UniProtKB/TrEMBL annotation:
Pfam families from the UniProt entry: FAD-SLDH
Protein name: Membrane bound FAD containing D-sorbitol dehydrogenase
The organism's place on the tree of life at top rank: Bacteria
InterPro entries hit by this protein: FAD-SLDH_ssu
Length: 180
């Protein structure tokens, strides 16, 4: 029954609370399609710039690989700049040391330790970043890559990085020795 002062149009009065909830659900759903770099554009820092050639050259010497993934290099460089104090200064000094001592490149860590270089820890940090995919240490440690880290890439012809079960659901529950 309708009130005498309200006209009966046959339409329900819109519920503003329900409309607000539907609009917020639609907005959150639509925002899930925004690419991560665009969504994170306000928080980007100059450290996310492309890795300099010095970083790539030093990385090639440390890893012993002639080619390295440039996208991964950019991410590792940004992570190292963010977590290692004075990384850029140490990197430039390390690059100068390698350029000035080409014979030392084969035994780089031994040469740095013998020279008592203040940047002697840097090759270990760069190697860890490339091979393990983690930059920084302790509470500052950040995982930058996993599947494409060199520890997984160099053995990818035989092994796959451990993740989930490789067989059907529950296959990890069977004892492989008792399976016939």
């Amino acid at each position: 029954m309708t009130q005498p002062h309200e006209p009966d149009t046959g339409h329900a009065v819109p519920n503003s609370g329900r409309r607000l909830m539907l609009a917020s659900i639609l907005a959150s759903y639509a925002s899930s399609f925004i690419p991560w770099p665009l969504a994170n554009a306000q928080t980007t820092t100059p450290a996310t710039a492309a890795a300099p050639e010095a970083f790539l050259n030093v990385s090639r010497v440390i890893t012993g690989r002639a080619t390295l993934d440039s996208v991964q290099a950019n991410r590792l460089y940004a992570g190292l700049v963010a977590t290692v104090p004075s990384f850029v200064t140490q990197l430039n000094a390390l690059a100068a040391f390698i350029a000035g001592n080409p014979s030392a490149a084969k035994q780089l860590q031994v040469s740095l330790d013998a020279a008592n270089a203040p940047f002697a820890k840097l090759p270990r940090q760069i190697a860890t970043a490339w091979y393990v995919g983690v930059v920084g240490a302790g509470p500052l440690a950040r995982c930058v890559t996993y599947e494409t880290s060199l520890m997984n890439v160099v053995v990818s012809d035989r092994l796959k990085p451990p993740s989930y079960a490789y067989g059907p659901y529950g296959s990890w529950g069977r004892n492989p020795l008792s399976a016939a």
